[in-house]
Design brief:
This protein is an alpha/beta fold. It has helices at residues 24-35, 50-54, 59-69, 93-112, 142-152, 168-173, 222-240, 266-283, 298-312, 323-328, 354-376; strands spanning 3-5, 118-121, 157-161, 180-187, 211-216, 244-248, 288-291. A 7-stranded parallel sheet has the order 1-2-7-6-3-4-5, sandwiched between helices. Helix 8 (266-283) links the parallel strand 6 and strand 7. The longest helix has 23 residues, at 354-376.
Length: 377
């Protein structure tokens, strides 16, 4: 039985009522699953310790987070990405962030010590935080901390990031670690935050060729996305031979997301998640740790992550959404309540440049593989 990690304290990781990174997304997901008749059994983690945070982050940075968390004045906080519009200061933010890191680390323990296979952490995915800088709604990098812990246990780790934004913090922290393969599919940094993730960013030293980026054109649809996903991920996994997958499952590549320009539907996410579970079975004896991530259309994120839960558990995917759930969350729906779990119109309107976008994405994937393979053999 897959394990699902969650604690009510995750709700405290909140930058304010009107901030995009809202804990409501997970509340909506859990409420949807309950309305569908699924009693979500969760295991509760403990917050990460200070020493566990320091396994990745610099002490002088952590001290500033702690001081701001306690309401103290830190004059240079913005030099460290804190107290900005993306990462406003809130009381208790150090502990709130440590809860999310603790959830990811509990997933590591379940895999390494309990022999569990499929683990879903209902939070985290804070892939932008760097060793000494907060960025993009991310204070501590739960993913890099968890991946480093897996590597210390002797696991070779493949990290797959499907968030629409480049997983720059994870890449930076692990850039020279040959025990970790990172693969990020994202809207090109030429158009979108954080402005990184080009194909030449391949890693350093013995890790050269193990940091793979697929920058996608704006308005990439699901067909093109899946084509490049299939082109890049299986050969990279086959070459690297990881023992465990870690997946950042951001939902912000969905066409309704207000902060980006990719065009995935819930049916595309269905196909992505099924592929990932199949790759885990093929390459890592089924071992996979999922976290959440971005996703700023509340109802799209809730539906995508509910779909992930259902697929991980091998449960049927229903068509209609419960009326009671739609009524409870009616105030959050920007364009009226969705009637079905899957998007009602899976085929987007034909775009004049659809084939050209797909051709460019195909070229990027081919160029990436041609370049990376020089370091694989």
């Amino acid at each position: 039985m897959p394990s699902v990690i969650y604690h009510p304290a995750y709700r405290n990781y909140s930058f304010g009522e009107h901030h995009s990174f809202s804990p409501k997304r997970v509340e909506m997901m859990l409420d949807l699953l309950e309305a569908l008749g699924h009693r979500v059994e969760t295991v509760e983690p403990q917050p990460a310790t200070r020493n566990e945070i320091l396994g990745v982050h610099e002490d002088y940075y952590v001290r500033r987070v702690e001081a701001l968390s306690a309401g103290e004045d830190v004059p240079d906080c913005q030099d460290y990405g804190l107290g900005t519009p993306d990462n406003p200061v809130f009381l208790g933010m150090d502990e709130a962030a440590r809860w999310l890191v603790g959830g990811a680390l509990h997933g590591v323990r379940l895999i390494c010590e309990k022999g569990e296979k499929r683990v879903l952490q209902l939070g985290g995915g804070l892939h932008h935080a760097r060793r000494n800088v907060a960025s993009g709604f991310c204070i501590y990098n739960d993913l890099a901390i968890a991946i480093s812990a897996l590597a210390r246990h002797g696991f070779w780790v493949a990290y797959l990031d499907i968030d629409v934004h480049h997983g720059d913090g994870v890449q930076q922290i692990l850039y020279d670690d040959r025990r970790v393969l990172t693969i990020s599919l994202h809207e090109s940094g030429r158009y979108l935050f954080p402005g990184t993730g080009e194909i030449h960013e391949l890693g350093l030293g013995a890790a050269r060729g193990l940091k793979l980026n697929v920058p996608l054109e704006p308005f990439t649809d699901g067909e093109s996305y899946l084509e490049v996903l299939d082109a890049v991920v299986p050969p990279a996994l086959r070459q690297f031979r990881p023992a465990v997958l870690v997946v950042q499952s951001g939902a912000d590549a969905h066409f309704a997301d207000p902060l980006a320009d990719l065009m995935l539907t819930t049916r595309d996410y269905d196909a992505i998640f099924r592929r990932v579970l199949g790759w885990a079975d093929e390459f890592t004896s089924g071992r996979v740790l999922f976290t959440l991530g971005g996703g700023y259309s509340l109802d799209a994120a809730a539906r995508v992550w509910a779909l992930l839960y259902l697929l991980i558990h091998g449960l049927p995917v229903p068509e209609e959404l419960p009326e009671a759930w739609r009524n409870r969350w009616s105030s959050t729906f920007e364009h009226g309540p969705p009637m079905t779990l899957h998007d009602p119109n899976p085929g987007q309107a034909e775009r004049p440049n659809r084939e050209e976008i797909a051709r460019r994405n195909r070229q990027v994937a081919q160029h990436l593989l041609e370049t990376a393979r020089h370091y694989w053999f």
